[in-house]
From TrEMBL:
The lineage of its organism: unclassified sequences, metagenomes, ecological metagenomes. GO terms for cellular component: cytosol. This is Exoribonuclease RNAse R. One of its GO terms (molecular function) is RNA binding. GO terms for biological process: mRNA catabolic process. Residues 11-282 form the RNB domain.
């Protein structure tokens, strides 16, 4: 059944906060929502993830089938969900204008984006809007008046998110993080399911904003797990193999470009290389 009051006392009521979802225009399930506000100390950031555990209990038939599937399979024109569509596209989807159960990372950050406090708890939220990357980029990055007017009810929270994103991005760049600029092709189908073309999705600050929020929330959860000595699986990126680095040096050498960092370059060295390439055509090859 859809969530309805009264809610259990352990689940905090965040329905008064103007959380929003920001996804691609063709998204059908909305599993994360965000909110930010400026505070005297810096920022408050809330990342809410759909609380599937409110419906899928361990050991049930739903749980066993989800384990068997492992993940949802996304195809150009359809999705084979890990969970029944009643859950994935409805009850566990953070749709606008509906009460939904979520698990929340509630973070306090200083003016430099450094974490001051992080708490995690189950909540009930009420998303104010289902936004797409393009319109958020138009309002925040391009400052288009019509887009800003259209998003006026949630614009203050979006501006706080954007300000925090710029601070977090600058801090990551100073740490030498690599920003992989990719162009995602999207296959387009006509009304009868026939192939009509390929459209390139360009990444905007709206994409990066959500990425930074998720990285920060995941990092804080990882710190909490470490502090509590709770064993967990972490997704990591292993360093590139020596032969791959040698191949890269050879290609760069043909262009008169040197990869810094000696025999074992660090992420910061690759980041400097990408920055050095700027907007040169070779950047996408590298």
């Amino acid at each position: 059944k859809a969530p309805a009051p009264p809610y259990e006392s352990a689940r905090r009521d965040l329905r008064q906060l103007p959380l929003v979802t920001i996804d691609g225009e063709d998204a059908h399930d909305f599993d994360d929502a965000v909110f930010a506000e400026k505070t005297k100390q810096g920022f408050r950031l809330i990342v809410a993830i759909a609380d599937v555990s409110a419906y899928v209990r361990p050991g049930t038939a739903l749980d066993r089938e989800a384990r068997r599937r492992g993940t949802s399979a996304y195809f150009p024109d359809r999705v084979i969900p890990m969970l029944p569509e009643r859950l994935s596209n409805d009850l566990c989807s953070l749709k606008p204008g509906a009460d939904r159960f979520a698990y929340v990372a509630d973070l306090e950050l200083d003016a430099r984006g450094q974490s001051r406090r992080a708490v995690f708890y189950p909540a009930v939220i009420h998303s104010r809007a289902r936004l797409v990357y393009e319109e958020v980029a138009e309002a925040l990055e391009q400052r288009k008046p019509e887009a800003r007017h259209r998003l006026e009810p949630v614009l203050e929270a979006l501006e706080a998110l954007y300000a925090l994103y710029r601070i977090l991005r600058e801090a990551r760049e100073k740490r030498g993080a690599i920003d992989f600029e990719t162009r995602e092709p999207r296959i387009v189908f006509g009304p009868d399911g026939e192939f009509t073309g390929i459209r390139i999705r360009e990444r905007t600050d709206a994409h990066r904003l959500i990425e930074e929020c998720m990285i920060l929330a995941n990092s804080e959860v990882a710190k909490w797990l470490e502090h509590k000595k709770i064993p967990a699986l972490y997704r990591v990126h292993p360093p590139p193999q020596a032969e791959r680095i040698a191949d890269l040096r050879e290609v760069l050498g043909n262009w008169g470009i040197t990869l810094p960092g000696g025999a074992q370059p660090k992420p910061a060295d690759f980041a400097r290389l990408i920055q050095h390439l700027g907007n040169l055509p070779e950047r996408r090859v590298v």
